[in-house]
Amino acid sequence: MSESEQIRVTRTVAASPEQVFAVLADPRQHVELDSSSMLRGLVDGATLGGVGDQFVIDMNNDILGDYQIRNTVVAYEKDRTIGWAPSLYPEGGYADKLGGMKPGGHTYTYELEPAEAGQTAVTQVYDWSGVKDSQFKGFFPMLNEEQLGASIDKIGHAAG
Q1: How do residues 99-111 score in pLDDT, each as one tens digit?
Q2: Rounded CA gap, 5 and 118, in Å?
Q3: Would the pTM of this model clear 0.85, i.e. be above it?
Q4: pLDDT band per the 50, 70, 90 thresholds, residue 1
Q5: One-character DSSP codes across the chain
Q6: What are the tens digits of pLDDT across the range 32-75?
Q7: What is the dotted CATH code of the domain comprising 3-159?
């Protein structure tokens, strides 16, 4: 993986790792944590309990308009790490807009480290090194460091 295929942002928030993890593991809260303005609402999903769990989110962007993403948990260590890989839902359902492009291969992971006085160092890792389709890879990064940092700030506010 190349550093140019990943953005890592760390911020310290005024909440314990347990509080931060509880927010991240609850897909019902993800729209409020969004700094991209693409998430619209939870369609299906419950509190995440391990690798393989899934949740579906309504989304919107300039390319697809309204669409859905199914997120599959790919990293899970309670109160320490949680991450998911988004994929279009239903798979192949947007061929009229994407042609032969095959989206997928990127992940969002949060690493939590206890900090002083009940605080947590939250590192968000936005990684697109697994994207195989060269046309889709041309859209990355879709988010920047400022947006990732703003999301961490929102997570801290929700958890605190």
Answers
A1: 889 999 999 999 9
A2: 32
A3: yes
A4: very low
A5: --GGGEEEEEEEESS-HHHHHHHHT-GGGHHHH-SSS-EEEEEE-----STT-EEEEEEEETTTEEEEEEEEEEEEETTTEEEEEEEEESTTTTHHHHTT------EEEEEEEE-GGG-EEEEEEEE-TT---HHHHTT--SS-HHHHHHHHHHHHHHH-
A6: 999 999 999 999 999 999 999 999 999 999 889 999 999 999 99
A7: 3.30.530.20
User: Is there a contact between 48 and 28 (Cβ–Cβ < 8 Å)?
Assistant: no
Backbone φ, ψ for residue 63 (5° rounding): -80, -50
What is the domain partition of the chain in residue ranges? 3-159
**CA pair distance 60, 121, nearest whole angstrom:** 30
**Contact by Cβ (8 Å): 83, 107:** yes
- Please provide residue 144's backbone torsions phi and psi, each rounded to the nearest 5 degrees: -120, 175
Token pair for 58: 């309504």
